[in-house]
Design brief:
There is one protein chain. The chain is of the alpha/beta class. The chain has helices spanning about 15-20, 25-30, 40-45, 60, 65-75, 80-90, 110-115, 130-140, 160-165, 180-185, 225-230, 250-265; strands at about 30-35, 50-55, 75-80, 95-100, 120-125, 145-150, 175, 190-195, 200, 210-215, 235. The strands form two sheets. It has a seven-stranded parallel sheet with strand order 7-6-5-10-8-11-9. The chain has a four-stranded mixed sheet with strand order 1-4-2-3. Helices cover about 40% and strands about 20% of the residues. The chain folds into two domains: about 1-100, Ribosomal protein L30/S12 (60s Ribosomal Protein L30, Chain: A), CATH 3.30.1330; about 110-265, SPOUT methyltransferase, trefoil knot domain (Alpha/beta knot), CATH 3.40.1280.10. InterPro entries: Alpha/beta_knot_MTases, MRM3-like_sub_bind, Ribosomal_eL30-like_sf, rRNA_Methyltransferase, SpoU_MeTrfase, SpoU_subst-bd, tRNA_m1G_MTases_N. This is RNA 2-O ribose methyltransferase substrate binding domain-containing protein. One of its GO terms (cellular component) is cytoplasm. One of its GO terms (molecular function) is RNA binding. Keywords: Methyltransferase, Transferase.
Length: about 270
């Protein structure tokens, strides 16, 4: 483990560079993002992701377990002042430890190559918490990954990273144009299904155990006509109560776990 000098000032050039990662344009330009909190930092260090640097206050620098993980992962360790941590943190109550993580380089072909190939296609989602929760559900349900359309919020947005609860380090998340990859999925024998509250077919009637790509849109605007045009089938989640619909993350989760149930218990 490389140990950098303690940084006291929020005006330090390295601190300014790390703080820029709160903005999408800098995350895209540098291929890096920031994670906050001991749990996420530990999960990142234990994953196959490349953790470049762990930034910690004095309290966390005394944590031998965390420092050992950082050493094993080959991450640099930099102790910082509380003022520096406050500049880097986007949460209201900073935990005193963060890490700069390199984005995973995942190609869309990875999603096609998986024998199960159960993929959520996020179309026009704007709520980072919803997107992060979808990534978490994909992980929990043993699905393949997530394809992020160009009009969807950044999966590395701080709120999305927190909502994913570590799943972002494990689940293949690919930014790609659905108009390019949905036809390729169909040509590979994968069924493309769009989730819509107005669909005639229930998810309990559709074939969704495997080799299915599920298009999920935003609550407000739904799925774009451009993306929906590639679907083989529209499906809905039956509602027994008075609610008209579920939010995107909840809806995707229901379908993902129904798919898992069929693969594992049918």
């Amino acid at each position: 483990m490389r140990i950098g000098s303690r940084i006291e000032s929020p005006q330090n050039p390295r601190v300014k560079a790390w703080a820029k990662l709160s903005e999408r344009k800098w995350r895209d330009a540098e291929g890096r993002y920031l994670v906050e909190g001991a749990k996420l930092v530990r999960e990142a260090l234990l994953s196959e992701c490349r953790v470049e640097v762990v930034v910690a206050t004095e309290r966390w620098s005394a944590d031998e377990s965390l420092r050992s993980l950082a050493a094993s992962a080959g991450a640099e360790w930099v102790e910082v002042s509380e003022r520096v941590m406050e500049k880097l943190a986007v949460t209201e109550t900073p935990q005193g430890v963060a890490a700069v993580v390199r984005k995973r380089d995942v190609e869309p072909e990875t999603l096609l190559a998986d024998p199960v190939s159960v993929v959520v296609v996020a179309d026009r989602l704007q709520d980072p918490g919803n997107l992060g929760a979808i990534v978490r559900s994909v992980d929990a349900a043993g699905a393949t990954g997530v394809l992020i359309g160009p009009d969807t919020v950044d999966p590395y947005h701080p709120k999305a990273v927190r909502a994913a609860a570590g799943a972002l380090f494990r689940v293949p998340v690919v930014g790609a144009d659905p108009a390019v990859w949905l036809p390729k999925a169909r040509a590979s024998g994968i069924r493309v299904v769009v989730l819509s509250p107005r669909a005639q077919t229930s998810i309990y009637e559709a074939e969704i155990a495997e080799k299915v790509w599920l298009i999920v849109g935003s609550e407000g605007r739904g799925v774009s006509e451009r993306t929906a045009a590639f679907a083989d089938l529209s499906v809905r989640i039956p509602m027994a109560g008075s609610a008209e619909s579920l939010n995107a993350a909840m809806a995707a989760t229901v379908v993902l776990f129904e798919s898992m149930r069929r693969r594992m218990f049918s």
